[in-house]
Amino acid sequence: MSSYPHFHTALNTLPARFAQCVASPEDRDAAILTSVTATGVHLGRRSALIYNGGKIYPTLYSLIITQPSTLPAWYRWFGFLRDPPPVKNSGISKAEAIVHLVRDLVRRPDKVYTGRNEDPQWRDTTVDRGTVEKRHLIMQRLGPELRNRTSATARRLRDTLNAGYEDGEMSVYVGYRDGGFHGAKGAHIALLVPEPNERIAATVCDQLPFLLARAEHAPVDVDLNDDSMLEDVVSDLIDATQDAVSEVTIAPDATRVLQSEALPKRPYAVRTLLRVAHILAVLEPSPIVTETLVLQARAIVEASESTRASLHQGKHTLLRDEILEFVRATGANGLAHHELVRPFRRRGNSTADIKIVLDQLARGQELVPKTVKTSGRDRLEWHAPRVQ
Prior knowledge:
Radius of gyration: 25 Å
Largest sheet: 4 strands, mixed
Order of helices and strands: HHEEEHHEEEHHEEEHEHEHHEHEHHEE
Structural class: alpha/beta
Number of domains: 2
Shape: globular
Number of helices: 13
CATH topology of the largest domain: Rossmann fold
Helix content: 40-55%
Oligomer: single chain
Strand order of the largest sheet: 2-1-11-12
Distance between the termini: 41 Å
CATH superfamily of the largest domain: P-loop containing nucleotide triphosphate hydrolases
CATH class of the largest domain: Alpha Beta
């Protein structure tokens, strides 16, 4: 059984019923997260949650620690729902690719030279005709790209995704002949990201408002023609998304829960909670987010936060073992601090994570730091303790 915390979602909810049909008990949470994210992208801008006088749409970013083939196997059951079809591989390699997926019409002023010694004239020129479709589910492994903290391309990608999550507007520089920004207002981008490498997942999950879960087994092989339970679930999913009201409100008791409960101190935590509660209300179906739905949504968000903490703990444990082995391999000579840090930085570990692990090893006397006097600045070295 997985050591990660469970969502504690009621068994009679549609996401839990879906998970029971297509996933092993250990992977229940990951299947629930897949269904919630998929429902959000199919709702798109057709349904909004009214909160503090504004509208919040059901955009979700989910990262599931699993092999990439698992998510398409689960998501195929959502092909019965309304368009759009999923973008299983968007081809994203830089931030501009997202804008290209959801681009608006772009018109720019263009200078036209009319003749020698004559004043030029200006006219509007269509630079990009844009696209009509604005809702997409991006399902691909973005972890290796997002983990790079220094790359300008990765930074643009993170900035664009964060902007899209916060208010749905995509805007980033693209290389038209006259330069400038290309925006796509009202874009609905949902990420359903598989990432089998837990160290990469631990690195990227702090950079975006990801909901996290883990799938450890192959998807259950289900034939819709032979499974009346799954047929009922699919039918209920279709009805719930097609009959979704355009505006979902929050009951007074649910508002009090939001105001009184201590939520994780992370950016987007409340917004993510509201979006999950909105989707659960649509699947209920209910035009009102009740206290019960907020508590179920909070259980998902809090379990995701606990999974995040577990990932970091596992990442530090693995890094600790690697550093210890690396220093021991040098024998009695030890390593200068920069010689120890450099190879692990090249592998994508942050300086802060390396410092935390070195401090832990020093406190446990598993590594011995020594300060060596030189003619210039003192040099810090790391040694494995001598075996008596």
